[in-house]
Description:
By secondary structure, this protein is mainly beta. The protein is built from no helices and 16 strands.
Amino acid sequence: MSRQTATSRLSISKARKEVNPNLVKNGDFEYAPPFVAVQTASMWIDGTATGGNTDEKPTPIGWYGSIVNGATCQFDTSTSHSGTKSMKLSTPTTGDYAEIKYRSTYYAGINPENKIICQPNTSYTCTYWMKTEYTSGDSNNGAKVTIIEGDGLGTTGTNTSGTEIKTTTDWTQYTVTFTTASTANSLNLECRIYGHTGDADLIMDAWFDDIVLKPTTPVTRTAATGRTAC
């Protein structure tokens, strides 16, 4: 037995570090699994060359491309905000819209690993970098990031969007802050560019990179307490 008496034992309290990871894995697109170079059909980016179209399919990168009428999405290794890759969405003359969705919450039975889990009545902040290159045309919407709340039962709630861009802009960081509803338990994050929601086709490219989604107030671990051995 140690010569220390019970009264001489030390009591230690130490604050732990913040627990505040990015809820969006692969938000910098540095992990690019093999898939068709320019995606022209809706499918999961799932590490296969052809992708998959099963809504509830788990995927290591978590992104699903929703492509309509000639629009495209692709990993771009020539343009990025940081690192070596970004996600590029394009709407050509005949394009309707292009979306790249992170872990869809739309389906009641979707696997838990394909969700961004959130807490109800909680403030979240999403930051992302976006670059756009305008060619011609117009639409009611442009390029943006939208966060959609889900309740896990197949019902979607509030949509919160970042700044819509329909011009040529260099890499710019945008911020979206929102508070989840009392029924929210998951989030769906979508990078979007709409090319045909107005009187003329919007022909434009948009690049997305370094997407971060976290609680607005960082979560911290509780203090650790302990004492020395006898």
